[in-house]
Amino acid sequence: MTNAQQPVQGRSLPAPASTMIAEFGTYQEAQALVDKLSDAKFAVEHVRIVGTGLTTVEQVLGRMTYGRAALTGALGGAWFGLFIGILFALIVGNAWVWVVWTVLMGAAFGIIASVLQHAMTGGKRDFTSLQTLQAERYGVQVTNEHAGEAVRIMGQPNPTQ
Asked: Residue 8, SS3?
């Protein structure tokens, strides 16, 4: 049981009071401002980028068929088998035999696992997709005691390099 007075390892500490010095429509713009502050030797550990208006976006990539499940399983299993095979080859002799054998076994087990996983969905999710988290706006916040300096640096033109 943890003590409520002591923070649990892995939890972040409460954020210090901050001032929003700029807001952007894209993450790249917010990142560019932080990079400008860093280039000006500003203590960037007092800066954070905060995304607001979060939305999950799932892009459907294609149908998931048994063939596609088998192919992706074979590729993933072969990569894992290659890793294990290289480890075995470093430890024991006759290296190429181990590498080839583990790649083939990894591919076979990958096929079985992927096809079984696809079959267990019962056709309820027969497509592949990629899910991302997107923000509507990105704000750059700086701790209150450093905000004035950050705003001053923001107003300066970019140094030519």
From this structure: coil
Q: What b/e readout covers 128-154, taking b as 16+ CB neighbours within 10 angstroms?
A: eeeeeeebeebbbbbbeebbeebeebb
- Do residue 30 and residue 76 come from a single domain? no
Name residues whose C-beta falls within 8 Å of residue 136's C-beta, 6 or more positions apart in sequence.
51, 52, 53, 54, 55
| Nearest one of 58, 146, 154, 68 to 114, comparing CA atoms | 68
Can you give the length of the chain in residues?
A: 161
Q: Which domain holds residue 33?
A: 18-54+135-155
Of 10-14, 43-47, 67-71, 80-84, the range with the lowest mean pLDDT is 10-14
Q: Per the structure block, which two tokens stand in for 77?
A: 């299993």
Does any domain span residue 10?
no
The pLDDT of residue 8 is above 90 = no
Inform me whether the pLDDT recorded for 93 exceeds 80.
no
Domain count, the chain: 2
The arithmetic mean of pLDDT across residues 121-126, rounded, is 85
